[in-house]
Amino acid sequence: MGRGPTIEGRKNVEDSRKAKIFTKLIREIAVAARGGGDLATNSALRAAVDKALSANMTKDTIERAVKRGSGAEGADNMSALRYEGYGPAGVALIIDCMTDNPQRTVADVRHALNKHGGNLGTTGSVAFQFTRVGELVFAAADATADNQIFELALEAGADDVQNEFGESTVWCAPDQFEAVKKALLGAGLKPLKAAVIMRPGNYVLVTEDVADTLRDLLDRLEDLDDVQEVFHNATLPDSE
User: Fold this and answer.
1) Is residue 1 assigned to a domain?
2) Which domain holds residue 157?
3) Which secondary-structure segment (H or E) carries 198?
């Protein structure tokens, strides 16, 4: 009878996963810090630092990444790149990367897409199907909680609030994201997720077979060190 993974084995997998996440976050902070190392005036840096703190990154590590990006600890040669393409069954994909070797990155992304029935597109080929927006998701178990989130969010400048499956999702313009988040946090509400994302204008429901291939593709892309975020317009069959 086979034995499952040991505690040490599971810890090694978790440590590797955490290290990969930290690598991506450090890159994001460093690139954002090129716009200045002051969190009060650099909203992109503030968002990146908030994300790192949520992942339990130490303040010392964050400060080093800020210094590296702002030039205080030498030049940083990372660049932010966006690739557009298609996954299985023509699912639209936006793949945001940060890399010091664009040739390596585009080759890795192209290989992942081709292997899963997709292909790399040209700039602008799918971006028109997405809109850059702020998204904050909160648990809202009852109507009272939902109403509180709705009122606070709209008063702070949000564009829309939707409630489904016990969660309230707040949408806002990117330049209103920090103000909306601050207002909701100030009321003691902690988001399950808060980020500026690329939101598709329309979603496409895919079959289970396509969904399985798409999940494999997303896992492959997100496992690449250079890939920061992946956005798509598919609704998976088991999605709520």
Assistant:
1) no
2) 78-240
3) strand 193-200
